[in-house]
Amino acid sequence: MMLHPDIPEETLGGILVKAFGNRSFLAGFAVTLFVAAVAILSYLWTPYDVTRLVISDKTLAPSWAHWFGTDHFGRDILSMIMVGARNSIAVALVAVGIGMGVGVPLGAFAAARGGLVDEALMRINDLVFAFPALLSAIMITAIFGPGAINAIIAIGIFNIPVFARVARAGALAIWPREFILAARAAGKGKALITIEHVLPNIATLLLVQGTIQFALGILAEAGLSYLSLGAQPPMPSWGRMLFDAQTRMVVAPWMAIFPGMAIVITVLGLNLLGDGIADILDPKSRRQR
Asked: Whole-prediction pTM value?
């Protein structure tokens, strides 16, 4: 494997020094780690059972017993946010995995082949990109019914052309390089060159794009759940919680405030993390934090 000549190889220690000196990375990493820890903790413990309905405790204001209050069914909102975190993360993570697993090979293949193959793949890519995740989810739901799996498929399909475009653009910038020409002169085929030389040199680009799509996946999952196309009750979802709160903003504003804050903080943390990773790994970045 040969890295791009403009990208000096750095030791792990050097990367860590940059990471600890980058405020965006530290803030994003801390927020993302906290949300992930909450999601993992919800598998082991939550303050209350999110499937238990206690009508006598409905729309209770935040208190020591219920830190974030309760909803219209008497369920503890903090517990629901904890469980909803793992649902949002799981959907976004798998959807990004689908998009990256299919889109990156397509984009790299299109850049390697060029010509009519590249043009055909990109036009198909544009056709898929014309159907946003919401429209894809509606079509899938009309056939198979609503659910978290269908939300994953819809968001994953939408991510494929995104990663295909990024991979193709990055690969096209690598192919004219001298070390690629040397590899071709040594008898290596396009597939082997792509695996050994092209993909390692666009890994940073894909990693940054992955964090961005992960944040967008969180938003997409919340939007689909808000429209009842995502996770179905009794499984809590941040988007579904906002839907339930929209007619109770006057009597129980905390039903919307806390899940809304969870979405904002999570997406903000992921965006800061992606921005920080770009600053650390991109040698052309000179922004001072």
From this structure: 0.88
